[in-house]
Design brief:
Layout (H helix, E strand, L loop, with lengths): L6 E3 L7 E2 L2 E2 L2 E3 L2 E6 L5 H15 L6 H25 L5 H7 L3 E7 L3 E8 L19 H8 L2 E7 L1 E2 L2 E2 L3 E8 L17
Parallel strand pairs: 1-8
Antiparallel strand pairs: 2-3, 4-5, 5-6, 6-7, 7-11, 8-11, 9-10
Helix pairs in contact: 1-2, 2-4
Length: 190
Amino acid sequence: MVIAQPQSVDVAPPAEQSGGEHEIVLETGSASCLLPATPQAVPKGRALVRRGLKHLGADSVSDDVALVATELLANALEHGVRDADARASEPDELHRRRLDGVRISLASTGSHIVLSVTDPSPTPPVRRPRDPLSGGGRGMQLVESLSLCWGWTLLEEQDGQRLPGKSVWAMFPKTAVEKPAAQIRIQGAA
């Protein structure tokens, strides 16, 4: 199921930094981190997701959530940051806030985990139709197949200005769900 309604969400303040490194903020029921808009954000984000899921008592779903985090972070860097940089006609302060990086967050609802990646572009994600001959473009299909549902929301206003950007999110069960074993039927067998 895909839920893609452009709703607004509050922008969380950036995580505190020490020594130039971006740190994960672990709180009751959530974990988040502001990552630099560089390719190193993807493996760092994956490691932070695993740490955050352990903190939230949901490490049994860490493989699926980490894979989806990889896709959402790669999309945020490839499309969100690049799109925001191309639209750089705003005043310098607003432009700087947009390009600070991408935020990755986990939140526990009790029975579910919500992963979100926030980037500076208001352009919504696009799930491309299946094309077996294409070398790419399957990321959102992967997100859709591994999560219970996914969607995106626009960012709220901050300091009287609408911050361009969006948060793409995916929801997972808090504990791994046993998947039934695939049944193969051999024609002619009894």
